[in-house]
Amino acid sequence: MTSKIWGGRFSAGPAAIMEEINVSIGFDQRLAKQDLHGSRAHCAMLVARGIVSKDDGDAIQEGLTRIEKEIAGGNFLFKRALEDVHMNIEGRLADLIGAPAGRLHTARSRNDQVATDFRMWVRAAIDTLDDEVRRLQSVLIDKAAAHADTIMPGFTHLQAAQPVTFGHHLMAYVEMFGRDRGRLMDARKRLNECPLGAGAIAGTSFPIDRALTAEKLNFDRPMANSMDAVSDRDFAVEFMAAASVLAMHMSRLAEEMVNWSSAQFGFIRFTDAFSTGSSMMPQKRNPDAAELVRGKTGRIFGGLMALLTVMKALPLTYSKDMQEDKEIVFAAFDTLELCLAATTGMVDDMKPDAKKMRAAVDGLITATDLADWVTRVLDIPFRDAHHIAGKIVKLAEGKGVGIADLSLAEMQAAEPRITKEVFSVLTPEASAASRTSFGGTAPDNVRKQVEAARARFLTLGKAP
Ligand code: ARG
Questions:
Q1: Residue 115, number of CB atoms within 10 A of its CB
Q2: What residues line ligand 1, using a CB cutoff of 6 Å?
Q3: What is the position in ligand 1's atom list of the atom closest to the CA of 83?
Q4: What helix, strand, coil percent values describe the chain, rounded to 5?
């Protein structure tokens, strides 16, 4: 059977393998809502400009309404022979209303149609993700507020570095996810121009009104260049780039949760809701969800590479290669939604163990506080103070004790002017409380950060 759509030129149908490689309805049916929306706007514009009669326009709109209902009710039969979502909907419209259906595609091509649909889809996906990331920030902020005073070792090189609070640590992720929302919103701003009316490549000789369709579809303006309009997929690449950074951040948090929930750290415990057992080892409580969030990152990074590779050598304008864009973006979105839900669930679920965290703070961790005290009180240049503190650390380490366990005399062997006042800065609590510089870990700072973050990130309708 020849195609109804291009049967004028073709006398035979496609080879089976041709249909197999060409067909996209299996995945691009996810664009159905956007496609209907786009068709409605296009049809209304054609009528407004006198290109299609009011009667035909009404028939088309009614037909589209019926299709919408069929799809919503699960009664729409997507046909592989009709290749993609655009031709499935147009084909069904012809079944339903007959001849006027053929007027809908006036001054339009699937090239500008798919670009428009896909932009609208990505735009909606960004809005959904923005909500979901905000929810994740919200549970992180709540946990941080509850643990503004909980002391834990902060790490560099995964070596205990300085005491920090667990709340401060969690608030770092709130910042990271805030930037993720910002990146998604930046992408949204740039994608919000309408390709519709670019036609296949060159524009159209019909007196269309591109500003009207752009407005009806909530775009800021029509895209300025018809060739760019049909060949650009930057918006999808930017989405994948922002998705990759977001996935990377979730993976880092997942990695920390894996570490923290191990018996060796013991910093957090997941309830049974987020733990899995081992089929062999009865003692195990595995953090599978965190590991999977970490593991699924590869799909999203891979998707970014795949899409960049699809686009990298395409001459202007549209090439069918670009049909490969959608599965990548759909899959990344689905994976992100799953990972965001799991991460939000885990953060909400995890029970921090303040005692274990405090116990993990070793007796050498306030070495910087010692050096700072020597600099501040004895007015010794920091580099020299570092050297003095280093000697004291070496002594403590040799004796297998903490710095604060040394006697004043032992400290004075390294620097005679040290007084007993030094001991007041050597507890982890004092150390953390002293970090009052902007952005520092002092519990009072963390409480302020928490309030500021609620206002910055959790106010609805306000982009970060
Ligand atoms: N299914 C196609 C895609 O996703 C729609 C555009 C087809 N355009 C064309 N000239 N064959 O890219």
A1: 27
A2: 24, 28, 84, 110-111, 114, 318, 320, 322-323
A3: 1
A4: 65, 5, 30
The phi and psi torsions of 143 (rounded to 5 degrees) equal -65, -40
* pLDDT score at 229: 98
* Cα first-last separation, the chain: 54
Instruction: Tell me which of 10, 84, 330 to substitute to probe ligand 1's pocket, judged by most ligand atoms within 8 Å of the beta carbon.
Output: 84
Kindly report the backbone phi and psi dihedral angles of residue 173, in degrees, each rounded to the nearest multiple of 5, phi listed first: -70, -30
Q: How far is the CA of 294 from the centre of ligand 1 (A)?
A: 34
Task: Give 198 Cα–ligand 1 centroid separation in angstroms.
Answer: 14
Beta-ladder partners of 164: 152
Structure-token pair, residue 431: 């150390």
With 70 as the cut, is the pLDDT of residue 1 above it?
Answer: no
Question: Across the strands, what pairs with 345?
Answer: none
What confidence category does residue 185 fall into, taking pLDDT thresholds of 50, 70 and 90? Answer: very high
For the chain, which domains are there?
15-106 (1.10.275.10), 111-149+163-208+217-359 (1.20.200.10), 367-426 (1.10.40.30)
Question: Is the pTM above the cut of 0.85?
Answer: yes
